[in-house]
Amino acid sequence: MNPASTDTANGADHGFSAQVNRMFDTAAVHTDHPEGVLHQIRACDNIVRFEFPVKLDDGSIEVIRAYRAEHSHHKKPTKGGIRYALNVNVDEVMALASLMSYKCAIVDVPFGGAKGGVCIDARNYSVHELERITRRYTFELIRKNFIGAGVDVPAPDYGTGPREMAWIMDTYNQMTDDDLNGLACVTGKPVGQGGVRGRTEATGRGVYYGIREACAFKKDMKALGLDTGTAGKSVVVQGIGNVGYHAARILQDEGDATIVGIAEIEGAIYDPSGLDIHDVVAHREETGSILDFPGATNLEDSSDALELECDILVPAALEGVITHENAPNVKAKIIAEAANGPVTTQADTILTEKGALVIPDVYLNAGGVTVSYFEWLRNLSHVRHGRMSRRFEERNAERILRAVDELTDQNFDEKLMEDLVERVGFGASEEDLVNSGLEDTMAFAYEEIRSEREKYGVDMRTAAFVSAINKIAKSYADMGIFP
Ligand SMILES: NC(=O)c1ccc[n+]([C@@H]2O[C@H](COP(=O)([O-])OP(=O)(O)OC[C@H]3O[C@@H](n4cnc5c(N)ncnc54)[C@H](O)[C@@H]3O)[C@@H](O)[C@H]2O)c1
């Protein structure tokens, strides 16, 4: 069962969608949009549930259940990942699709929200079986008009990655006549198949930028009893898949933070003197487990890691892991929601009352969709981006230096030219461009949410929802309601 739906103290219904809607309602109080518009923003526009047969390697046939929800068509296409997990259900995809709509609005990415899910544990299938499942799922989406560059554009999520996105793209291109825009029917593809450099790590990198922004504010850090900056802060990460691994790696390598705890499906490890994320991943590859990492203490119950002593807790696995039961024991001062919905609404209240800073998912993991937007734009425009040659960079630098020379008394020389090439970053790689676009986006959105928080005296999540609601409501105000 979806753990988020089990947080039912006081007999209340706390399904994942109900929780997201409650967050929405809490924020809507601080806006003045007509009730009907608020209702339309909250509603899930379109959803399909289907089942299809797949032939397994041993010749047997398994029937697989799958979903795709398009939450909001106020902007098209809709956009959102595809999750492969056993506990996928209609409530979960609707909740995740709605979070995508709000997320896109927060970072000003002009998409509506969507989400897909296939009820499988990907670890139980061979690569050939996964390919057949992915292709058949895509075929069903095509038949139901739930995929296309201007319609609905999937991306990776829990249990899927660039490999699955390439299969989706290929199936779409084999089955449709959309020759011009076929590449843009899905994002998160391998770089050789129309993907952009930096997309794989984009969500984790965005998580780092978001945490860095939060840690930069003196007043907020003082209230938490912490110094500003990420350097030296102790971090516990739950889940070192795509999002968690890259977030941990960049927090360690670029943010100089110390990873003291790591939780995975097989258990957790703790070392207050620091765990090198690269070494832990190498150890897991070699032994099949993060447990028994040299110098670290094993925690047999993986969820105990959520209660470890640390400055920053990064839940990066699934929803509903911090509930009213364990929230009182969470010691972290900053809870950085890398996963979608890791903190239930009841737990959120407990953490906020304890004075912790919760950086909400709806902002913090928006790096993936931000860079997906760059990929989609690149696919539609059919532009190539590669690093410019060193000679080209030097010629550019030379031209600029000669111009500077003419305007000032400075003498043009080789050393100055080299400095300029390095500093200005001529011929910046695609990855540099992607990362700086992502960095700006995350910093700008944080500032926006923080100012809503100050304005209304609310927490960061409510402020993020206020920002999303206002932007989507403006869309409806501008375009009107059809017919
Ligand atoms: N991939 C993206 O670009 C993206 C974008 C936005 C949000 N997200 C969200 O981030 C979360 C993780 O997604 P991902 O793409 O990294 O998935 P992933 O499949 O790459 O990694 C998830 C990891 O969590 C681990 N895990 C599962 N249950 C666990 C548990 N109980 N304790 C500890 N570890 C556990 C898995 O073993 C796996 O290594 C999801 O909530 C997803 O919706 C992902």
Explain what the structure shows:
This protein is of the alpha/beta class and 483 residues long. The chain folds into 3 domains: 1-43 and 463-483, no CATH class; 44-195, 3-Layer(aba) Sandwich (Rossmann fold), CATH 3.40.50.10860; 202-367, NAD(P)-binding Rossmann-like Domain (Rossmann fold). Helices cover 45% and strands 14% of the residues. The protein contains 16 helices and 12 strands. The chain has helices at residues 16-28, 35-42, 90-106, 127-143, 162-175, 202-216, 218-224, 242-253, 277-287, 345-353, 361-364, 367-381, 390-407, 414-425, 430-456, 460-479; strands spanning 46-55, 61-70, 78-84, 112-118, 152-156, 234-238, 258-264, 267-270, 297-299, 312-315, 334-336, 357-359. The strands form 2 sheets. The protein has a 7-stranded mixed sheet, sandwiched between helices. The chain is globular, with a radius of gyration of 23 Å. The two termini are 41 Å apart. Nicotinamide-adenine-dinucleotide (NAD) binds next to helix 8 and strand 7. Residues 81, 156-159, 203, 238-244, 263-265, 302, 316-318, 338-340, 365, 368 line the site of nicotinamide-adenine-dinucleotide. InterPro entries: Aminoacid_DH-like_N_sf (IPR046346), Glu/Leu/Phe/Val/Trp_DH (IPR006095), Glu/Leu/Phe/Val/Trp_DH_C (IPR006096), Glu/Leu/Phe/Val/Trp_DH_dimer (IPR006097), Glu_DH (IPR014362), NAD(P)-bd_dom_sf (IPR036291), NAD_bind_Glu_DH (IPR033922). GO terms for molecular function: glutamate dehydrogenase (NAD+) activity; nucleotide binding. One of its GO terms (biological process) is L-glutamate catabolic process.
